[in-house]
Amino acid sequence: MTRIIAGTAGGRELRTPQGRGTRPTSDRVREALFSSLEARDALSGARVMDLYAGSGALGLESASRGAAEVTLVESDRQAASVIRDNVARLGLRATVLAVTVTSALAGAARPLDLVFLDPPYDLSEEALAGDLEALVSRGWLAEDALVVVERSKRSAEPRWPAGLQPEKVKKYGETVLWYAGRLDP
What we know:
CATH topology: Rossmann fold
Mean pLDDT: 93
Number of domains: 1
Shape: globular
Largest sheet: 7 strands, mixed
Strand content: 25-35%
Structural class: alpha/beta
Radius of gyration: 15 Å
CATH class: Alpha Beta
Number of strands: 9
Distance between the termini: 43 Å
Helix content: 25-40%
Order of helices and strands: EEHEHEHEHEHEEE
Number of helices: 5
Strand order of the largest sheet: 5-4-3-6-7-9-8
């Protein structure tokens, strides 16, 4: 069972898409991730985007912990419907876009403070590199933005584009979190 860990919706259950290949971030990894983000004061009032949102756990945890604006991007329509249901049931403010990440990033950019990329493990390194490049080149990242990529421990380090500086790597069993910050232009 997946739950919101803390904040205004702390302890409340999240529905997850069934049989759709969705791999929600484990409670252990989310707890460590959000402890790290709160230590950086990266959540209060933040503009957040959760790409490849799945169940919406990362974006909704952000909303529960004080993010001002949360956008969840999920191309699978059934999964997007589950996320919308989670948003409504939890009473959190968030926008759900049922489009591909490529389509979402091709739209009008709004500077974001925090971006999560938790793609399916079988997403190619080239596709992930393209997503990261679009975040930088299309103006999606605010001055002090943080990008967090979740991948399998068998995946290579993301190919960071110019404009993103890797900061740290944290490993949790099969899961690896890669953190990168925006470099000043």
